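In this supplementary section we document a worked example of the pipeline. Step one takes a protein sequence of length 142 as its only input; no multiple sequence alignment statistics are reported here. Step two produces a three-dimensional model, which step three serialises into structure tokens for compact storage. The input and output of this example are shown verbatim.
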Amino acid sequence: MTQEEKRNIILENYQNPKNKGMVNDNTYFTSNTSNESCIDEINLMAKIENNKMTDIKFDGEACAICTSSTSLMIKNLLNKSPNEATEIYKNFENMINEKNFRKDVLNDLIVYEDIAKQPSRKKCVLLPWWGIKKIIEQYKNK
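The serialised model returned by step three reads:
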């Protein structure tokens, strides 16, 4: 994937994020994550039925990297089990931290593979993932 293709995917998911907007439904698990060093704040909600993440929604105020990461995360986690989502999360986090990861697990999330070159952006890209990790923990501990 070229740098331009990566930029286009990030920009598209920032300008037209998937599943933005919350619903009033107490059957969803929820989380809030924020970055104390900038404006990024993401509220997530996920419906998990029959061990599948059947719906994930978000809202909040965030930069282009955080918003696009949230949108792409949701796209890649829908209809996955919490265990599958955890596997994707671990590989994504490893990629961001320049550790070994499986590209085949990440699909289009690979657009962030160069984010390590901008250490200040790591929190931006990981923020929604920390939120989904909280939701998975809530689900497993219910």
